[in-house]
Amino acid sequence: MSAFNAFKANVPVAWSPNLYITLVRGIPGTRRLHRRTLEALRLTKCNRTVMRWNTPTVRGMLQQVKRLVVVETEEMYNARKQKDANHRALRPPLVVNHHPAPTSDASA
């Protein structure tokens, strides 16, 4: 599931001192004002995340480009990173033996 689908519904409602902003839609084809806003937020490439303080100025910028970004609180961001780390963690190797075990049952 993409970051857009997973986190667009979970817009932060609780107050958080930091906001994690991820650009999930491409910049080409957007309005110049929106491109300048994303540039001011330091979002230049898709799927990049930046951390900004939760201030009225930043929230106004996010309101302007809300269809291009996903906003997460610190708890949501840490939970997503932990889930990704668990998914990428090393798993025990799968051992497949193609040679049948020798049987000690010699009836002849």
TrEMBL record:
Record's keyword terms, sorted: Ribonucleoprotein, Ribosomal protein
CDD domains with a match to the protein in the record: Ribosomal_L30
GO cellular component: large ribosomal subunit; mitochondrion
One example of a Gene Ontology biological process annotation: translation
Domain Large ribosomal subunit protein uL30-like ferredoxin-like fold, first and last residues per copy: 20-69
Gene3D superfamilies: Ribosomal protein L30, ferredoxin-like fold domain
GO molecular function, one term: structural constituent of ribosome
InterPro entries documented for this protein: Ribo_uL30_ferredoxin-like_sf, Ribosomal_uL30_bac-type, Ribosomal_uL30_ferredoxin-like
Annotated signal sequence range: none
Alphabetical list of SUPFAM superfamilies matching this protein: Ribosomal protein L30p/L7e
Disordered as annotated region, ranges: 80-108
NCBIfam families, sorted: rpmD_bact (TIGR01308)
Family: Belongs to the universal ribosomal protein uL30 family.
Protein name, as recorded: Large ribosomal subunit protein uL30m
Species this protein is from: Sesamum angolense
